[in-house]
């Protein structure tokens, strides 16, 4: 069993943003082609603690011999907790472990600290979607709603995907946290004009690219304040009201996955009785099997549930890099040995 710690994962992923975006795009395309097995995520919740949860994401990311896609097949599971109250105590909100299994024996072969993998695959998927959905337009800047770890990583990847970004608007329900965020992460968008917004509508009106990454449990906002044609990266999934969803062009990672667990998209399905408001999956847009999103001034909302195959793609990358560089701790005797 190979154990790879958080700091080692960070070292292996540092400066690899473009590669990570490519890995995420490849995983989406494989999923669209039916080369994945992806059961629904399992949510473990606790009585009287509606904000706390631990989620299990099992999956298999396959390939075809000689098809030229990067990396081979991989199977495993991410086990990730979200305890928002941790932040007030000075701890990370999320923690995760990813277990990879051998596809020859089924034996577990690598245990990888997964919080950074999870955050960066999420951010890479958002940045990829922004590039795809802006369709060649240069964004006026970016608005971040929520100033936690996820939007930090979103900013990191947006800076790579849109190298000319020079304007940032920030809104958080805690203004001091927003100020700390920009002070700590100004290096991610050097030289940018930074605007701290006093209200959500002010933030939404600031730019035509918006990223929601909050801990909201129920919808609380529309997006009428956004400029025409704004691309909304609805990473936290539960911020937008049903009318906001129905008034937008909606792109998802997988309709069956995202229409669960009271996401805004799920609530829109419950209200309308169908999924006709979903324009396409991001995989279909990448493959060119779905019609392009109309450029008619309506907002475009990307709602990614977070597919476990993205975690597997990055975890496989980390495992392979660690093996090649001799990084990590090999634990012998973890599994029962063969008896004489």
TrEMBL record:
This is 2,3-diaminopropionate biosynthesis protein SbnB. NCBIfam families: dehyd_SbnB_fam (TIGR03944). One of its GO terms (molecular function) is oxidoreductase activity, acting on the CH-NH2 group of donors, NAD or NADP as acceptor. PANTHER family: KETIMINE REDUCTASE MU-CRYSTALLIN. One of its GO terms (biological process) is siderophore biosynthetic process. It comes from Streptomyces griseicoloratus. One of its GO terms (cellular component) is cytoplasm.
């Amino acid at each position: 069993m190979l154990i790879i710690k958080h700091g080692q994962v960070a070292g292996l992923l540092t400066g690899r943003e473009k590669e990570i975006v490519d890995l995420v795009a490849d995983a989406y395309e494989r999923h669209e082609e039916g080369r994945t097995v992806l059961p629904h995520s399992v949510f473990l919740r606790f009585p009287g603690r509606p904000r706390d949860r631990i989620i299990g994401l099992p999956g298999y990311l396959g390939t075809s011999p000689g098809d030229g896609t990067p990396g081979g097949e991989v199977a495993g599971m991410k086990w990730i907790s979200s305890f928002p109250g941790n932040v007030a105590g000075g701890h990370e909100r999320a923690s995760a472990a990813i277990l990879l299994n051998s596809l020859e024996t089924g034996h577990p072969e690598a245990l990888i600290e997964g919080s950074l993998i999870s955050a960066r695959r999420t951010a890479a998927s958002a940045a990829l979607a922004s590039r795809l959905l802006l369709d060649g337009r240069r964004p006026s800047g970016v608005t971040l709603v929520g100033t936690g770890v996820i939007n930090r990583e979103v900013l990191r990847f947006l800076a790579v995907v849109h190298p000319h970004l020079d304007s940032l608007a920030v809104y958080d329900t805690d203004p001091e946290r927003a100020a700390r965020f920009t002070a700590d992460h100004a290096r991610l968008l050097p030289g940018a004009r930074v605007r701290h917004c006093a209200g959500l509508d002010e933030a939404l009106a600031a730019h035509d690219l918006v990223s929601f990454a909050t801990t909201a449990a129920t919808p609380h906002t529309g997006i009428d304040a956004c400029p025409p044609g704004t691309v909304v990266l609805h990473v936290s999934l539960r911020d937008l009201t049903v009318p906001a969803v129905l008034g937008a062009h909606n792109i998802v990672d997988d309709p069956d996955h995202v229409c669960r667990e009271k996401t805004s998209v799920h609530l829109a399905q419950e209200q309308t009785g169908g999924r006709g408001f979903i324009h396409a999956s991001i995989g279909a847009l990448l493959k060119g099997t779905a019609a392009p999103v109309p450029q008619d001034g309506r907002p475009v909302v990307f709602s990614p549930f977070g597919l476990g195959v993205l975690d597997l793609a990055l975890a496989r990358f980390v495992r392979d890099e660690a093996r090649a560089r001799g990084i990590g701790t090999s634990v012998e005797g973890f599994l029962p040995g063969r008896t004489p």
